[in-house]
């Protein structure tokens, strides 16, 4: 029987060649075929690996080292693994295989016009990068390899890396026979990322599985420090359908890996470069287009490594593999974690995993101490790399001082299904062995609390819900929850609150930032928050309510006391529409409009529309519409709704209907103003009743008048979320949409469907 050739050009390969050259090399060949830029090169084959093992006679020694292996005995695992790797790498390269590799290496040099070209030698195992058997960093990569001797040595070391400790453990846990897995070596031109940048990306949000975005992490230099968590990278979130950039987060990027003396080293990044993004917006969009093309081709979410070659000023995809956490996950269940109690907050960082866990802290400075970790412990360390795998699977949660959302700790924690907090800064100093802690990753900010706290887990099946004629939408303030909630089968967002974004992500009064010359800080934070929500629920409508801070709330923002009067009853004071055209505030309103304009035009989220709150008079509504036009938002191209929350909106519903495209009933303020009950008054609290007949008649009147003018009506007050029978009343009055908080969305859909029947 003829043997497969020892070497193949990458461009000759396709995804059908995985058994021949491994997943990594096969995918690189497939990429070249769909016009994705790949660094030129060749690969050894599985046949070459088999030939090496046979001709050198080393299989018997490998088998003897594996006999009786107990992977839970970490020290013994490390001893056996080191002996196997030494056996493989110290054997002599068979002449026929050596000749084939060197001949192809010379051909690559001729193609590049370089003698002894520098190359990267990357492992490609025949059982890696498959949907059911993928894992981050099992084998090794060798960079800056130049010359025939270095090439042959690197190939042998690559062969040996088939038996890294972590790869041995992985195969044992997944029932792979160690000799059924082969190792191919992809040999490619060395991409000069040390002169530019590199990174990783997922064709979804890696924490929530939301597949409407591409998530990119980028840093200067070679990409290994990102995967290892050594460097805090930039992070970019891009909306796939438009390649509009939803969010850009500047990473620390304090170090970069560069070439030195034939190898690599870490060096400090100059301060001015740290404050710049590692990728331009054009490059981010280019990378997104390639990522989407790759995902479309393979028909499954992808985990992609890429680099920019600084010599060529060109982008290349280094490897792609299926994203295995969410791509193979059960999408039918939405799990919501809620902390039931709190204690002293010890730390915070970047949350991974959208879950909560508790356990006993074990602080490790080195993976060689991993035998100290018991099942269910919370692992705290500076950072992790693939050597930590045997211990990470024992932990209930992970906290690291360093790393980003695509660092090794983040990737592995997602695959293991455990929460992790990365970039916590001082976890190894603040936490101590034996501490009982709770890790809360239920939002984007991960928090470590003292003690074993109570938390609740709810599961909701979201694919078996009935269709409803009445739209059920969400009330949403926190944009960091948007991607996690995107899987809910709702009809969009009926109320996206600006106030949460300003309070949590800006913190300053907009006029304070204007006076400081920092208006971009406000615009960018607001643009990012709105874009996250808009992208999550696209193409369904997201109705964004313009600012409705009261004066006391504005005063609580940094610098707010300078600009806000003290009012006896802010609920009835300077709020909503009356602010926008006031000469004192109109420049602040311009910032809101600019953020919205960028969301619709730059990001391409034309599903985002606006709603005007607390609009007291028709003439006030006219002035606001004029301002929207003046500040770049065309009211002919964008729907503008008005809140129906004052008696004036009810009495003059016909006039408001001629002006606006829809109504959203704010039952809280409508109750306050109809009954004359201050919402904040504890004394009058028993009188605050949204089910009062006066309120219900007002709602009926608005719906009837709006429908006469062919205008839709929704409700975004708390009543449907907190008073189950309210939904029955609204359905009976033929309301068009009901907006509720996410925790009752599924219940509301079921209720609406039953009532409609």
Topology, element by element:
Layout: E1 7-9, H1 18-33, E2 41-44, H2 46-56, H3 59-66, H4 74-89, H5 95-112, E3 119-125, E4 141-145, H6 148-160, H7 165-173, E5 183-189, E6 197-202, E7 213-220, H8 224-228, E8 234-239, E9 244-249, E10 255-260, E11 263-268, H9 271-274, H10 281-298, E12 302-309, E13 314-322, H11 324-327, E14 333-339, E15 345-352, E16 356-363, E17 378-381, H12 389-392, E18 397-400, H13 408-416, E19 420-422, H14 427-430, E20 436-440, E21 445-450, E22 455-461, E23 471-476, H15 482-485, E24 493-497, H16 498-506, H17 510-516, H18 519-537, E25 542-545, H19 551-555, H20 577-580, H21 586-601, E26 608-612, H22 618-630, E27 640-644, H23 647-651, H24 653-659, E28 662-665, H25 667-675, H26 693-708, E29 713-715, H27 719-722, H28 724-732, E30 737-740, H29 745-756
Parallel strand pairs: 16-17, 17-18, 18-19, 23-24, 23-30, 24-25, 25-26, 26-27, 27-28, 28-29, 29-30
Antiparallel strand pairs: 1-2, 2-5, 3-4, 3-5, 6-7, 6-12, 7-8, 8-9, 10-11, 12-13, 14-22, 15-19, 15-21, 16-20, 20-21
Helix pairs in contact: 3-4, 4-6, 16-18, 18-21, 28-29
